Fold this sequence. Notes:
The structure holds three protein chains of three kinds.
Chain A: H1 2-7, H2 9-26, H3 28-31, H4 69-105, H5 107-122, H6 125-136, H7 140-149, H8 152-163, H9 170-177, H10 182-218, H11 230-239, H12 246-273, H13 277-280
Helix pairs in contact in A: 2-4, 2-12, 4-5, 4-7, 4-8, 4-10, 5-8, 6-7, 8-10, 10-11, 10-12, 11-12
Chain B: H1 6-19, E1 40-47, H2 62-68, E2 76-78, E3 84-86, E4 89-96, E5 99-104, H3 118-129, E6 144-151, E7 154-159, H4 166-173, H5 180-186, H6 188-193, E8 201-207, E9 211-216, E10 227-234, H7 238-246, E11 252-254, H8 258-266, E12 270-285, H9 295-304, H10 307-314, E13 319-321, H11 344-353, E14 360-368, H12 375-387, E15 390-398, H13 399-407, E16 414-420, H14 426-433, H15 445-455, H16 460-477, E17 480-493, E18 496-497, E19 512-513
Parallel strand pairs in B: 1-10, 1-11, 14-15, 14-16
Antiparallel strand pairs in B: 2-3, 4-5, 5-7, 6-7, 8-9, 9-10, 11-17, 12-16, 12-17, 13-17, 18-19
Chain C: H1 2-26, H2 34-37, H3 44-54, H4 60-72, H5 86-121, H6 126-140, H7 143-157, H8 169-199, H9 202-209, H10 214-252, H11 257-266, H12 270-298
Amino acid sequence: MIHLARRSPLAGAGALIVGLVIVAALAAPLLATTDPIDQDLTAALQPPFWRPDGSLHHPLGTDHLGRDVYSRLIYGAQISLLIGVLAAFLGALVGVAAGLMAGYLGGRVDTVIMRLADLNLAFPLILLALAVVALLGANLRNLVIVMAITTWMIYARVVRGLSLGLREREFVQAARALGAHDARIIARHVLPNVLAPVIVIWTLEVARIILMESALSFLGLGVPPPTPTWGRMLAEGRDYLTVAGWIAIFPGLAILLTVLGINFLGDGLRDLLDPRLRRQT
Amino acid sequence: MASVNPQQRMMTRRDALRVLGLTAAVAGLPTGARAAAAPTGEVKIGLAAEPNTFDPHLVVGRNTQIFIVNVYDGLTARDGQGHLAPALSESWKRLNPTTWQFGLRKGVKFHNGDDFNADSVKFTLDRAINPETKATVSSEMSTIAGTEIVDAFTVNVVTKTPDFLLPVRLGELYGLMLSPKHTIAAGKEAIAVKPNGTGPFKLVAWTKNERLVLEANETYWRGAPKVKTIVVRPILEDAARIAALQAGEVDLIAPVPPVRIAELQRNDKLVVKTIAAPRIFHVTIDVRKPPFDNVKVRQALNYAVDVNAILKTLYFGHGTRLATVVDKGALGYDPSIPPYPYDPGKAKALLAEAGYPNGFEVEFDSFTGSIADHSKPAEAIVGYLQKVGIRAKANVFEFSTFGPRRVQNKTAPLFIYSIGDAYLEPSWVIRWLTQGGLGMHYKNPKLDEMLARIEATDDPKKRVPQYSEVQKLIKDEAPFIFLYQADAAFGMSARVDYTPRPDETQWLYPMTLKG
Amino acid sequence: MRAYIAGRLATAVLVILGVSIVSFFLTFLTGDPAEIMLPPGATAAQIAKFRAEWGFDDPLVIQYWRFLKRAVHGDFGISLRHGQSSLPLIAARLPATFELTVTAMLLAIGLAVPLGVLAATHRGGPIDVLAMGVALVGQSVPNFWLAIMMILLFAVSWGLLPTSGRGGVAHVVMPAAAIAINLMALLTRLVRSTMIEMLAEDYVRTARAKGLRELFVTSRHALPNALIPLVTVIGLQFGYILGGAVVIETIFTWPGVGLFTIQAILNRDYPVVQAAVFILATAVVVINLTVDLLYVWLDPRIRVT
């Protein structure tokens, strides 16, 4: 990682921030000071410790049900990262597969897949996500699937571009003449080239998905309570903005910093791995 | 009359007042003398939602019902204290168990000049129950079999089964009167946006989701309203609505979320008025399935939840703890019955006695997006249940998804709900809460018998002690977790004088401007 | 060229057809509106009757065909909530959303171009670092959080701007800014990187060698070419912009299509949801088509695949 940081300070800084968030998510039970869903109505709406009626027992204050904001923030990282990483991964899986099929096989398969991608891109994604989640119900599984649906097309397009026309290349035809399967050819010749841009896209998509998930959460269609998510904390805090601003400010900052870190990382990776990509993404 | 003694004359006058249904105690309803000064001034109002339509038979949601009463009148109304008072009907009596006779007010005209009379009533009620209208209110009007015209200002409404609540039903709830001539000529789609009622205000402009303009009906039969123009803006978000009030962009807003009340009260240019809204919050328990068929478990649930803490922190004290499911303003509310105290130790003991020393698991449904916030109190309640070992898992739905689930009996064994006691009559609420279907499964023949006796009692005063017995029974049986009724808060600029109504309606007729 | 245009048009039509299928089936994923529309006391029999009267009982394919036939004539049914025809209800709100999104785009472009150019021409310097910093933060900030913070600061605390609603210039500033922030950030970086490449091109170096002034070189030679990718990106981002408008319209009660659609979704107002999703998606398709054709016209060397 230090090697990375030396070659691109941007990626290094990003990796640092992301690393912190990952640690927070993984070590949540150790880092949090209370159970994030433990309510105590007698301690509701307590300000952060630097205010006169705050205390170090609740360093960032409490929310309307007396739950500790700091602990909820730490646990909230889990959901954001989980959905972001899983959905981006699922989208990448589907998208890369689709792109490979479209680019390598060409013809009808290409047309169908690209039309599906166009169709998908035509919908204002948040509206689609809203409608689907509102109708099917908001839970982790549905959210990951819906978010994945908003991301696969991006991989598909790029991967398709990189694997177009490969089938007609001489060395591929030679390999096929020798008996190699399409799958093997793809694995040996296409995938390595595709890996770098996919990683960059994946990183940036994680950031975008975290933002979109927090928007859905904010509108009330995210992972249901009592699981703490940053978007939901923001929505809850909004009702108390004028009397307890800390409830909304901190989760918003958390989202901002996490997404910023991931974007740093993604940009740094892009600069490092493939300057060509700057145009495509 | 030449030599009538003063005593007699006074009695005659008092009789006359009684016929009009008014006593000196009733405030807010002048006897029909024209108001002295012409209406002046403009008031801008910010509401959480605007009506979906001005057609009284196609209303969806309480938000619409409570607003369109500004443009229409029903046969009856509520006064400032919540008592039933005459409106378009001056008197009513029950001829036999299934027939109510209404004596109608003379000299009332619709905004377009049409006369109000028995034809209007028959037309309106026939339209409500006519399947072609596809009225959304058809279920509440389904007790009506038909309307007979006795003479130009008297109608008999015949019901299929005895309906002791018909006068209330035909008030602001479902009895808003239409003009036959105009309605037929204008057509259904027109009535939705260009209503023609007898009410204190006329709708003069409506840009959906933007603004709605009401203008005073200067020939209103109660006397012209004091305010000439009312501009209504729907402002969905609480924060935006309150900011609009603080910035002076609007003069009155409703509702004000409890968390902002103190802040508005500190502002000496603003006034906040609250009233106990007749909306009864409760948690329905499915008594059919164990462990909830055991009354000890149900009582344990009640001891487990600190309702007063919820009122204090989530509602900032703006609410009333209810011992049962009868609201404070309803007829027969018995304040002497104490609510279940908060006693988690007792809750655990009761659970152990019932055979659940280690608690149990259960699902708990709540929802967002309805007229009031249910998800926050639900969260708090679930937290309390967990503290006594009941591992409740919360499911949150959007209200439009939850509705069908409840109706199809697919809810969790516990779910939070609230019912607006628009009738201000416990029998209606309790019947609804114990209907044995649509999610409400508690049925008790003894209770039904007590309610039937109450419904056959015409004199309201005689119903009161019977209701006390009903409340005692319900409390002991604990088929619900009893919660509270929340206050409705209106925020207004100091120059507006408006007192919220006890029946939840946003009836703006009594509003005046100071200075 | 002609073949390409024909191809793109055919694609667009196919996509719109797909849009119609999705928007139709979207609203049949679960439940039905009868129960929510009737007052709480409705019995199961009354609900069933209601359903039959409104035609919810017919097989799905028949309902889709009915939907498509009517859609072609602009009839998306009567809104369950408002009792009026859906399409005019949505059309009435398009100008408001249009005003918001166009203002947001102008704001984004208006800030991104100068910032990007400055960053490119002072590459590596403090201005560049600052501009890139702003851009990165702008891409990462949750725009609904920014909107709330702006309301808190400019409307509640300082009373400079109105809190909500549509009106004059003062009303559109905050919502447009909230939507613009993500796009502006993206465009700044794009302008910067494209300008950098342009500035390194042969013909620019030639112009410099000829002794032409830096500013002249920049604005007459490098800039116009740098703006071409901008067009494509804006087109691609239009879907995201509309999505941003949806959330921001809710926060500011901006009377546009986004707010209306969210309300319809939450109210299960099927006809309106169908109409809105259909129209919005079609708008995105049309804009993308326009952008693609525009791109080809601007730079005939390129065929967008």
